[in-house]
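Q&A log
Question type: sequence-to-structure
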Amino acid sequence: MNVRARIMVCDDDADLRDLLFDLLSRDGYQVETAEDGVALRRRVPTFRPDLVICDLMMPGEDGLSLTRWLRAEGHSAVLMLTAMGSTVDRVVGLEMGADDYLAKPFEPAELRARVKAVLRRTMSAATAAGRPATRVKVGRCVVDTELKAMFDEDGARVDLTAMEYDLLYTLITHARRPLSRDQLLELAHHKKWDPFDRSIDMRIARLRKKIEFDPAKPAVLKTVRSEGYMLVPDGE
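Response status: OK
Response body:
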C-alpha cells in the first residue's frame, strides 16, 4: 500500500518494539510505540492509529482487554502477537475482536504481508487511495485532519467526541457518496449495524448542529432517501 497508514506497536519487549518500528517505518507507515496498556490508552486518542499491533501477554493489562477496548471505541484494527501459538489462544483472540493473529517468533515478511492484508480489509477505499487534505472545509467549520479537530468560522475549537470525529472523517473521505447506516458503522467504527441501533442517527444529528448553517434544513450532511447519509462539504 502507498498510503501513509498509522500503526501503533504495543509490546513490553523493547527490542521487538524497535525492530517493528524500523521495519514498518521503512515500508512507509507512520509508526508509534507503546510499552504497555497504560501508554497505549494514552496515545491512541491523539495518534488515532489505523492498526494496532498488540502483544497478548504483557505486565498489567493484557492484549485481550486492550483489544476489547479498541474495538468498543472503534479506534482501529488489531493484529495480535503472542508467543502462545495454540489454536485456543488464536480463537480467543479473534473472538475478542482481533482482525488477525501472528505467533512469535515470526518472519518479518509474514508480518508485513499480514499488516498489508489487514489494512486492505479495514481501511476505506478513499483513505487507502490517499488521505484527505490537512484542512477540509465542512459547512461553517474547518476540519483539521492532522489535529483531529474542528474549528468554527471564528477559529474557535468545536468539541467533538472520538466517535463523532471518526464518523465525520469517514464522511469526508466518501464525500458526495451516499452511505448507509451499515456502511457508516462498518467504516467508521468497525461494527455491524443492528436495526435497533440509532447511534449513527444521533451522531449525525449532533454533527449537523455543529457544521450546518441551518441544522433544520441540512445542506451539508444530507439525508438521501432509501440510501442513508451523504456529506456535501460546501453545501451545494
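Response note: The longest strand covers residues 77-82.
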